[in-house]
Amino acid sequence: MPITDEQVAVLRAQLTGNREEHLRLMGQLDSNEANVSYTALVAAAFIEAAERRFIEDGKVADDAEVIDFVAKVRETNDESSRLIKPQIAESMILDLLGKGAMVDADPDTRFGHQTVLLAAMVGEERFTSTELDAFLHNARSLADELLG
Q1: Gap between the Cα atoms of 69 and 61, Å rounded
Q2: Beta-carbon neighbour count of residue 137 at 10 Å?
Q3: Any idea what the Cα angle at residue 22 is, between residues 37 and 130, rounded to 5°?
Q4: Fewer CB near the terminus (10 Å): N or C of the chain?
């Protein structure tokens, strides 16, 4: 099942901070879409964002940079950021970078961490609308591969 324009629109609304639109669009997704395809899209966007944030010119960031990033995310006033468990968040990023193993966490916890960390990484980028569209296009392509 390929990623749909509707699923991309849901993620775009979230990443632009349009909470009402995000919730409205999310409510229109069928539960199978939300549980499989949308989850894959978020995972792919997380991978894209983490690679952009922590790999520069083929050089992978050190552990301290990942730890500092997670601490910074947790310092925000946003309630969801305070729910981030450092050990889980750090291990998710370090595992993706090939620098450790992800700690055990249930799928809902992993998804929650991905969404908060993804929003933080995208927020740091300060994408223009065109840049965000390109980012989402890349994430969509990767998600389609993951689902393929």
Answers
A1: 11
A2: 11
A3: 85
A4: C
Helix, strand, coil shares, percent, the chain, to 5: 75, 5, 20
Tokens 């390109």 belong to residue:
134
pTM: 0.93
Per-10-residue mean pLDDT, the chain, length 148: 92 94 92 86 97 96 96 82 89 94 91 94 96 98 94
**Nearest Cα to Cα of residue 116 among 147, 142, 61, 79:** 79
Question: What DSSP character marks residue 4?
Answer: P
Specify the amino acid at residue 130.
T
Buried b (16+ CB within 10 A) or exposed e, 8-28: bbbbbbbbbeeeeebeebbee
